[in-house]
Amino acid sequence: MKLPLLRLAGALLAGSLLAGASAQIDTVTSSFDEDQGDADVRAAVGSVLTIDGASFGTAKPKVFFTDGEGKKYVLKVTAFSDTQLTAEVKKGVAGTLTLNVSPKGSTEPFTSPVVFETPRIDELLDETGTSSIDEASPGTPFLIDGAYLGTKKGKIKIGGKAAKVLEWLNDHVLVEMPKKLANGLWTIALDNKVAVNDEAEITMFGSTVKIGKAFLNFFVNGEKVALKYGQGSAPGGYAVVAVGTSGTNPSKSVVIAVPFLDGDSVPEDYVFGTDLFVVSYIETGKFTLGGPPPTIKAYVPTIGFTVNITANSASQVAGNCSGILELSGGGGPDIEVTGEFVVDVIQT
User: Fold this and answer.
1) Would you tell me which CATH number, out of the four given (1.10.10.410, 2.60.40.10, 3.40.50.620, 3.40.50.720), belongs to the domain 120-204?
2) Cα separation of 324 and 321, whole Å?
3) What is the mean pLDDT of the chain?
4) Please, which residues bridge with residue 339 across strands?
5) Closest alpha carbon to 119 in 99, 143, 138, 94
6) Structural fold of domain 21-116
7) For 285, which of 21, 138, 178, 295 could close a Cys bridge (C-beta 3.0–4.6 Å)?
8) Distance between CA 182 and CA 167 in Å, rounded?
9) Quick check: 28 pLDDT over 80?
10) What is the mean pLDDT of residues 234-257?
11) What is the domain partition of the chain in residue ranges?
12) Rg for the chain (alpha carbons), in Å?
């Protein structure tokens, strides 16, 4: 009595394998796909893929992505028939992945390409979604509108500070402006656990938080010089950062002075050639009390030296700078200044 049963089981297995061998994927559509004028199928976490084809069988098939290194990302099959499957995307990695459908009993899966998209930010909107914005005050909720953000809650940082996420959907995220962030123009880094989009920026206003510490790299003839921060003064409402090796001989210092009026002028780039800022380098030789005065060599920036003001808050101004200094009149060492600075605002 067992032999016919074994033969029947073998016949069923053979039929399953035969069905798998003749299976095929005809079309794949994605619930999150946007028409971008090409034939690519696009997906993100939370996308529901509808897979039409033939001979998928009557048992639930396995559906998964593979990347270029062969790593698998399993999809959740939510419905299936011999000619159509639906499966929910649970995870993946950015780039073109291979969608695999493996009917029960098949030896090789049937495949189709799917583009797993990185998150896209299109616009910043107020909490109601009716008005475009480019600034917000501490604790203010606002919308990040976009696509392929995914449905799994990720992380958002603004100016390096964690922002509270109130709602996360594939086409928008409701987020709260950090409260412990200084005024200024800050980058929004949206991490949806697939990739990070840090192309959007927003200006904080109304904050009383100080900006904090920063750094400045100062190289003379390719050799990095140790520096420390101090304040100076300059006419015309300049904010000044002065750094140097105070209390040593010989000493080296650099002074960067940029015009600063009020919050409306921040952020703004100042490029040498517009007479909006000055940069000087001072080098003093060894000297003794009562001896000859120290030698002072003045330098001016070459074209291309840029000071970028990014933030101001609580009587501070911050930004970054880069460029090459030259000795006025020619000669002298090669001096390169790069980095970020924070100084107290000096208004005259």
Assistant:
1) 2.60.40.10
2) 10
3) 77
4) 216, 321
5) 94
6) Immunoglobulin-like (2.60.40)
7) 295
8) 24
9) yes
10) 51
11) 21-116, 120-204, 216-344
12) 31
